[in-house]
Structures are given as structure tokens and as C-alpha cells.
Specification:
The protein is built from 6 helices and 6 strands. It has 344 residues and is α+β, with helices and mostly antiparallel strands. The chain starts with a helix and ends in an 11-residue tail after the last helix.
């Protein structure tokens, strides 16, 4: 063997050396991957918080202009239009063109906007949290339903299911209200409404937020895929009890309450029982296919680790951990609970 050949043979990797290098690379990738994933989630969470900040500014500008908070629904008794507060604030969310294309004298949800898609199919970027992979729009054409990751705060409002007296694990956390805490707030009487929003034509002014805007939730994160769990396989498209209207930012009340219209703080934060792939044991008194699980479904929740983000009525955005005291969380939802907190 020549001197050059011996030198080349000595400089080559042996099989053992190659395996050691591969193992080292594998360890480095395993160490770096969680850091990369954490950085990506941090960026997604920041974008999500920015969306809530935009909502807070939009609602504040609406209130400053009209001297009332946007009405979340006028569907009571068949009165039109049947749209959420999110539709009413469109001009303050840089969506004036969409707003101008809506006919508010009728039910506009199935009507084309400016010759384009129907209102139910409109899907503004700010309505979605990038941490949630759930479809932004379900269906197509006149069957399209745009989903959302943000809902108004109903406070500690009654969100009972459809069967009276069944599946009410969080009933004790409802705010006692004059005249009774009416289901979903379908009333024009503000005495019977806990939060800033309700599924009825109730008029709430900033003077009605007696707990103070810095102590009252305005909006928070929700998961449209956790609505109306219809089978043992979980919620979402393809399950027997899922209706895509329930996950929209447009539909308040008429055929179905939508999570974009509001969620209740009687439900613990990040209560995932009705979400896809949930391994929780269901209450045998609950019947998901008929909407009896609404106390589980109509709560605030996100896919961020350990909590969810909210915008308060003063416009500030806060991340709340899912370990927050449930009674405190309930009080923060109500606008006139009489309980004030400096640290939450």
C-alpha cells in the first residue's frame, strides 16, 4: 500500500465513529426541538394577543362613538338582524367595506357581500389564533361557516344545555341576578345579564360596568372545535352533533348560539371535556348529541400551554393560567359582581 493510500485509509470514518456522530446529532436535535417549538408558540401567542388588542380597541372605539357597547344580538322574537357584536364593530376593525355590504334590515348571514362570498363565509385574519389548527372556514358556497377563536364575555351567565336540569356541573357559579339569571342572556333587561355581552338586545353602557373596566373581562379565547360534541369520537366536523354555526363569529342567536357571541365564566378556564380527543369521563347525565353539554362547551379555552388570553374592558390584554381560582375567574367575568382584584 502506498503512503498516500495509507493516509486516506486513516482519515476515513469507521462505522463506530459514524454512529457516534449520528447519535450526537440526534441528541442535539432533541435538545433544540423543544426550544424551537417554544419559540414558535411564543410567536403564535403574541399574534393571538395582538388580535385581542385589536378587538379591545375596536369595541372601545365603538363605545366611544355610540356611548353603548355593541349589541350582541337582536334575534329575540325574530327581530332582525341576527348578528353578533363582532359584525357591528366591523368599521372599527378595518372592515368598513364588508360592513357597507351588509343589509341590516334582514337576516344577512346567507346573503353575498358586495357580490362576493356570503357573510357567513367572511373570515378576517384577526378572528383566528394561529395556535389552533381548526379549519378557518367549514363548508363552501352558501354552506360556508367562518369559525373564530375569540368570543365576548357573558360573565357568569347561565349556559344550561337543552334538557332542563341535566348536565349542570357548574350551575353553582352563576351570578345571582335580579329577576333571575336567564339562559344565555336572551333578554333586553340588563339586570338579568352578568357580563358586557349577552345573546339578547340588552343595552350595556360603560356606567353599567361598576366593577371597573380594569376588573371586567371583555373578550377571551375560545375553541370552535369544542362546540356541540356529538359523539364519542369528539367534537368538530364529521361528528353527529356538530353544527358549524356554533363556532362562527357572525351567528348570535336564531338557529344556534355561536361561541363568537360569547362564553361564560361559570365554566372553568380550559375545560376541555367537549374537545376532540378528550379523554375525560363524561357525566352520564349529559347527552352531547342533543346539546346537553353546553356548560362544558361555552367556556373560554385555548391551545396555549396552561392558560388562555383575554382582553379586559380597559383594553389591556392578560394571560390567565388555567389554575386561576375559579371563583375569582367567575367574578372577573361579571361587570357588577362587587368583587375587585389587583392581582390575577
Amino acid at each position: 500500500m502506498s503512503r498516500l493510500s495509507r493516509r486516506l485509509a486513516h482519515s476515513a470514518f469507521t462505522l463506530v465513529e459514524l454512529l457516534v456522530v449520528i447519535a450526537i446529532i440526534g441528541v442535539l436535535v432533541a435538545l433544540l426541538l423543544p426550544a424551537v417549538q417554544s419559540a414558535r408558540e411564543a410567536a403564535r401567542r403574541m399574534q393571538c394577543g395582538n388580535n385581542l388588542k385589536q378587538y379591545g380597541l375596536g369595541v372601545a372605539n365603538y363605545e366611544d362613538t355610540n356611548k353603548v357597547y355593541p349589541i350582541n344580538a337582536t334575534g329575540v322574537g325574530g327581530v332582525k338582524p341576527i348578528v353578533t357584536f363582532q359584525v357591528r364593530i366591523l368599521p372599527y376593525m378595518e372592515q368598513q367595506t364588508v360592513y357597507n355590504g351588509i343589509d341590516f334590515t334582514v337576516d344577512p348571514r346567507r346573503l353575498p357581500i358586495n357580490g362576493g362570498p356570503i357573510l357567513w363565509a367572511i373570515s378576517p385574519t384577526y378572528t383566528h389564533c394561529p395556535s389552533d389548527p381548526f379549519p378557518k372556514v367549514i363548508g363552501s358556497g352558501t354552506a360556508a361557516r367562518a369559525q373564530t377563536n375569540y368570543g365576548g364575555s357573558l360573565g357568569s351567565q347561565n349556559v344550561d344545555g337543552l334538557t332542563a336540569g341535566k348536565c349542570q356541573p357548574f350551575k353553582a357559579f352563576e351570578q345571582p341576578l335580579d329577576g333571575g339569571n336567564i339562559r344565555m342572556g336572551t333578554t333586553g333587561d340588563k339586570r338579568r345579564v352578568s357580563g358586557i355581552f349577552a345573546f339578547g338586545p340588552v343595552v350595556i353602557r360603560i356606567a353599567d360596568v361598576t366593577d371597573g373596566t380594569s376588573n371586567t373581562l371583555l373578550m377571551g379565547e375560545v375553541l370552535p372545535g369544542c362546540q356541540w360534541d356529538g359523539s364519542a369520537g369528539g367534537a368538530g366536523p364529521g361528528t353527529s352533533g356538530y353544527d358549524p354555526q356554533s363556532g362562527t363569529w357572525i351567528n348570535p342567536w336564531g338557529n344556534l348560539f355561536s361561541i363568537g357571541g360569547g362564553a361564560s365564566t361559570i365554566t372553568p378556564l380550559n375545560e376541555m371535556t367537549t374537545c376532540p380527543r378528550s379523554s375525560k369521563i363524561r357525566d352520564p347525565a349529559c347527552n352531547p348529541a342533543t346539546g346537553d353539554t353546553q356548560q362544558y362547551a361555552y367556556g373560554f379555552k385555548s391551545l396555549h400551554p396552561s392558560g388562555a388570553q383575554f382582553v379586559l374592558a380597559d383594553g389591556s390584554v392578560r394571560f390567565m393560567t388555567q389554575s386561576i381560582n375559579h371563583q375569582m375567574f367567575q367574578y372577573l367575568g361579571g361587570r357588577d359582581e362587587g368583587q375587585l382584584f389587583t392581582d390575577f
